[in-house]
Design brief:
By secondary structure, this protein is an alpha/beta fold. It has helices at about 80-90, 110-115; strands at about 15-20, 30-40, 45, 55, 60, 65-70, 95-100, 120-125. Helix 1 runs parallel beside helix 2 (about 110-115). The longest helix is centred in the middle third of the chain and has 13 residues, at about 80-90. The two termini are about 20 Å apart.
Length: about 140
């Protein structure tokens, strides 16, 4: 299985994710639940000797990014075309990370589908903490 990379370092393979539920009693057919697509990678925080740096899949990554804000202040959402355009602008500017503030409203499925498939590791921080562990926000295809 190939690893997911920020767009500045490699490809962003995403794999279909499905869960099958099987009843323990007879007469019930298994139920398949499609959960979208998921990418696999590791992120490590290096704080040795007072440093603060990130490693993705064991490789040091210089993070360049911005805080994401809504593209539509009225509906607090966005269409796939609007997300694709805005994320394309971030990519053209050389950014490889987008931070979503804990108080920011996004359309998680639409936003993360576009961001993750285009090589962005999306972090979400809480208003109660100044730093949270970055994680891939799994898109639902």
């Amino acid at each position: 299985m190939a690893l997911w990379w920020p767009h500045t370092h490699g490809a962003q393979p995403l794999y279909p994710l499905k869960v099958t539920l099987r009843a323990t009693s007879e007469g019930h057919a298994p139920v398949d639940i499609e959960l979208g697509r998921v990418g696999f990678r590791t992120i490590e925080l290096d704080t040795k000797d007072g440093a603060f740096s990130l490693r993705v899949n064991g490789v040091a990554v210089f993070c360049r990014g911005a805080c994401w804000t809504t593209t539509d202040i009225v509906s607090l959402g966005g269409t796939p075309d609007v997300y694709a355009h805005a994320i394309g602008q971030a990519r053209a500017a050389g950014m490889n990370m987008l931070r979503v503030g804990g108080t920011m409203s996004t359309s998680p499925t639409r936003f993360t589908t576009h961001a993750t498939s285009r090589g962005y590791s999306c972090g979400r921080t809480s208003c109660l903490r100044t730093w949270t562990t970055l994680r891939v926000m799994t898109p639902s295809s």
